[in-house]
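Let's practice the habit of predicting before peeking. Look at the sequence and jot down your guess about where helices and strands might fall. Then scroll down.
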Amino acid sequence: MDFLKEDRLRECAALKALKSKANSVKETILNRVRRHIREFLRWPKFDAFIAVAVLCNSVTVGLEASYSVDHPHATASPLGWEIIGHAFNALFLAEVLMRLVAYGSLFFCGEAKAWNMFDFVVVLGSLVEVFFSLATGGSSNTNLDQLRIIRVFRILRILRILRITRIIRLLTSLRLLFIQIVGTLHSVFWAIVLLFIILYTFGMIFAQIVSEYLTFEDTSERKHTLTLKEYWGSVPRSMYTLYKVVTNGVDWEDVAYPLAAIHWGWVVLFNFFLTFTLFAVLNVVVGVFCQSAIQSANADYENSIRQKLTEKTKFLRQIRILFLDIDVSMEGTITYHEFQKHLDDERVGAYFEALGLDPTDAWDLFKLLDTDSDASNGAIDCEEFVEGCLRLRGPAKAIDIAKLSYENTVTRSQLQGALSLIEGSINEVADHILLRDLESD
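Done guessing? Here is the structure:
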């Protein structure tokens, strides 16, 4: 019996091991598939293909909308457009499913969750549209319920127009503009509040003086009475008039001239409002908008990475061109004499100065660029030159200072150990000499 129990336990352990191994194999295959799908989704040509597909789909949606306007009693679109629409729906559904498989829960809670949720909602709306399209059946004999379904179906078609906004995410320039616009919304709100306060203050002043003038003065025979009532008859009208004046919606002379009939001082106050709003308030608001837009663009993670990569690529191209200019012998290496000779060139010297390097000490600069001086026989190849310029580019960073401090600490501890050994050796030698002198005496 004990032997049977042991055999069963061994079989259970073997089965558990096989199951765990099978699960690990499945997880490995799934992770491999996810990795390949991520690489495919990050492929720039795939983004370009999706962008073209979105544009083409937007064109077909516009053509269908035009057909619906020209044929208001049509219950369905032409069959060709229906097939094209279903093809686009299948394509975008496949893309969303690929993203769901590739990113899993990160699809809804990752860095791009807003765009992913937007894509998901648009695709879901397209599926609902297909459902209603199949529910109508395209028949001409429709009852009241089917007519309601058709109306809902036409309303859902509007959601497909929102798909064109995906171009913002796929194209870098549009995406950057969108991020900058969103980043300025906070400033827009407070700018509107400030403008409302200014318009309310001056609008209340002008409405009050016009109201008193129309109440206590005999204005029945004056020609500006109707104009004053039209533009300044109440506080909301006065605010709206001032807003139109600021935004060039009305000629300011048409609204200021009736105020002269009351007193010329109110025209002066009106001109002060224009000067203060146009030259002070609006210019400050524009400056704040520009600053907010720049900060939003710099804070964007993808844009920062793309900008850094672009700058690095441009820098490497310039460095390689500079190396070819210095390498007159066309041997693929730069010797110290070639390097020193070309430092006399104003362009080369200015370029090294732009890197924050002093080109006057050619030897020190050459040794800093020569990372493997023992193997290169006093010459710098292209890779060494590029890596050295990248390493010496710009001011010292915090990691450079920390690395230097760490190396100094290690060197100091090694020197202290070496000094301790030397001091011990000297003491041993001194003791040995002292013993020898004592023995000789």
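How did you do? The longest strand covers residues 333-335.
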